[in-house]
Amino acid sequence: MPNSTICLSFDFDAMSVWFGYKNVTPAMLYRGEYGARVGVPRILELLKRYNIPATFFVPGHTIESFPEPTAAILEAGHEIGHHSYAHVDPSEQTLAEEREDMERALASLGRIGVKPLGYRSPSGGFSDVTISLIEEYGFLYDSSLMADDFQPYHPRVGDQVTKDSPLVRGRASPVWELP
């Protein structure tokens, strides 16, 4: 049987997953806490049982709110990637807001000794400048887009397309996209 390579990744959002909603309720926040209290320990145990490395994309808010499960991820030898600070959709942010969110998350990651190699959008959405910011902050890869299923590729910056005009491709980014 030929060898295969797979990539397992998890979004450890905890409470922050709800911050994009207009009305955040206590029940929503408790469901988010479930991921920290129950979900992450179960996933870590399963990964340990089968000796499988994984990547966890963790918002800065989650790192600061749930330091013990975050530390357990690192202690188990798994990668932690950038997943924003407060799980806010970058397509709804100004450039200044998106930059501030990215830097605040990087600061949270830095405090736990992580210089992330990868980025995943909290919403799967990008603004017109997200890829440029990913390049600027030195990420090697992104795992948000889906122009392929399991073939890595380089996303483009500056595509132009409308309902009335066909795609004009922008430049290829040096960042790898891992769909």
Question: How would you sum up this structure in a few lines?
Answer:
This protein is α/β, with parallel strands linked by helices.
What is the overall number of helices? 5
Strand order of the largest sheet: 1-2-3
Return the CATH architecture. Alpha-Beta Barrel
CATH topology: TIM Barrel
Secondary-structure element order, N to C: EHEHHEHEHEEEEEE
Strand content: 15-25%
- Largest sheet properties: 3 strands, parallel
How many domain units?
A: 1
Number of strands: 10
The CA-CA distance between the termini, in Å, is 25 Å
Catalogue the unreliable spans.
none
What would you say this structure looks like, in words?
There is one protein chain. With 179 residues, this protein is α/β, with parallel strands linked by helices. It has a single domain, classed as Alpha-Beta Barrel (TIM Barrel). Helices cover 35% and strands 16% of the residues. The strands form 4 sheets. A 3-stranded parallel sheet has the order 1-2-3. The mean pLDDT is 95.
